[in-house]
Predict the structure.
Amino acid sequence: MTRVVLAAILLAVVAAAQAHAQDFEREARWRAEVVPGLVTGEAVDIPGPGGRAFLGLLTEHAADPAKTILLVIVHGIGVHPDHGIIGRLRMDLADKGYATLAIQMPVLASDAPADHYEPLFANAAERIASSVAWARNKGYRDLVLVSHSLGSRMSNTYFDRTQSPGFRAWAALGLGAPYSSKFAQAPLVPVLDVYGERDLDPVLKNAPARERIAYASGGRQQRIAGADHFYAGREAELVSLIADHARRK
């Protein structure tokens, strides 16, 4: 093998690794942008995988965490815990009496496609588990997971990696894939599967398969009429669905 060919192979390997490398600097930029502008809630540092803390946005009104339902909210691809529908959910659900903790998921470069995120799902699952431990340390005992888009796939990985989930229920929004075979065979929590009438094609295509698992879990599926993948103009209906699911025991 010539040196030129070997160098080309090495460059390709390095480029591939960089394309899938977790972008901690981008997380730091998100934090620097989001935290100073917070109007509702407070920024908290949650100990994460490898001893590296990650950002959480905590919004709470009740004096006694032990008597309050905490909704841990997981965003989708490449954004932050106050972005778009996630920011709306963390504030509007808090207004309904819940505590909310929106957490920063791993991110890649801004142009990275969804399939490049799959190697980060394990890290994402660890962050969700760390959020459970952090919340319990603060006194919360009743936790519900809420996830959107790619965050719902990350959340599915969390359930696949644990025998005793720290959540009583799960609201999976805009999941663009079927539930994993492991979760489908033995759902650990009741799932509210939500999608929009005008959602992304993969979300719509897999809706029938997801519906079967949602009902088998003791939950249900709900299509929101007129909604797109980000529930623009249908946020109030989405908030009500999640709030209702979180109340059921």
In short: The first strand starts at residue 42 and ends at 46.
